Amino acid sequence: MQNQQMPNQQQPIMPQPPHVITTKDLSYINDMLAWNLLAMKKAHFFAGQCQDQAIKTEIEKCGQMHQRHYEMLLAHLQEKQQNNQIM
Length: 87
What we know:
Blueprint (H helix, E strand, L loop, with lengths): L22 H27 L3 H34 L1
Helix pairs in contact: 1-2
């Protein structure tokens, strides 16, 4: 088997997201929402089980990060929905 080098073909970076969300995009966004929600719930549960206050604080920070990500995704979807209603 020959070791072939592929030319460095990078896709251009989009300055703004497209105006259309495909079915595949929506499926991935739903997965991201579910993953962040689950991580947030697990962090909350394990922080409640933790005896060491320093570790508990770090787990709570982790849960808050996942909550922020969840809310950010949700805000993008709500903004997209409002923009589509205006058009």
